[in-house]
Amino acid sequence: MTNLSDPILPGATLGILGSGQLGRMFAQAAARLGYRVHVFSPRPDSPTGQVADRQTVADYEDVAALTEFAQSVDVVTLEFENVSTTATETVAKFVLVRPSGHVLYITQNRLREKRFLEGAGIACAPFAAANSPDELAAAVQQVGLPAVLKTADSGYDGKGQTMIRSAAETTGAWATMGNQPAVLEGFVDYEREFSVLVARSPTGEIAAQGPIANDHVNHVLDVSMLPLAELDPYVEAAQKISRQIATALDLVGIACVEFFLTHEGKLIVNEIAPRPHNSGHLTIEASATSQFEQHVRAICGLPLGSTELVSAAAMVNLLGDLWQAGDPDWPAVLADRCVRLHLYGKTEARIGRKMGHLTVLAATARDAAEHALAARGKLSSAKE
Ligand code: AMP
To answer: Cα(first)–Cα(last) distance of the chain, in Å?
Structure first.
């Protein structure tokens, strides 16, 4: 196994568990730096598999395939934190896994994550565990209403969560969540949501970028903007909290820390994703070092790249909804010289599925967002 302090140099092979768009853009950044990428996932013809050097198509519980995969790579990373523990534990017997099992253990579960934040003295929404209807009733007393009930495990993009506005809704909320271990969180009446990308290398070097302002539609990220002038007063504090989290986790790799900014100007951490994040896609064009390159550098123990901004930028997601009336009008956006189109190679465009994104660079992030939204409008307007 590689010595912890030895850099993994270009020419080496990076393994990745998971094969979606995050893995795809990671593989593209790795290839630019001269690495090979071997992807492991149960899905053939995946966004990552299409661009990786090698792919193993096997189940995350397939110990023999995981062993062979682990023995063929120099380090393993992940593109989603909810990958099976069989996969990470099997692989970790043979090769470095970055981020470590400890980081995944904490961030895979909302209750453990909240307790970690609380222990590190970082502000998060008031919370209480709810593992039964009685515990939920007690949690409502403790946390107060309105509140958000979230499954403790494997929730993302607003999946596995329900709002409780009055005590009368408590029983129904428990049933909606399917009787699973959950966390009740106080509802935060926020002014804005934003994220900070924080990378940490094995030597403890840290590079943070953001706040990136995020607008959601139906709990799914719609628009990201960097930098937003109104968030300037929070850059220092938000980056400081993110660095603190990266250090306390002993993170190696990149993580996205999602924040709520309250009307009173208080910063509250919502959650931590220990991987590149949708809100960081605009760094591909907007930053001297993209979040994907930064992740490659961090897991390989290389010096971290500059987080200097090349330009203000905005990103808008392209969801499967855009395909419902037929293929989007790609030439319409490709004719626009300001728009960068990213498509993830997914063949089936389901409603709500992330299929690609557009990035626009402009004088301000708001100008860029306006331009990107207009460009997205052109993708479907020709058919209306
Ligand atoms: P999450 O899956 O925790 O990222 O939540 C998805 C979205 O739900 C967030 O981006 C917020 O818009 C909203 N949300 C989650 N938790 C809270 C909360 N405690 N208070 C207010 N809104 C929340």
So the answer is: 58
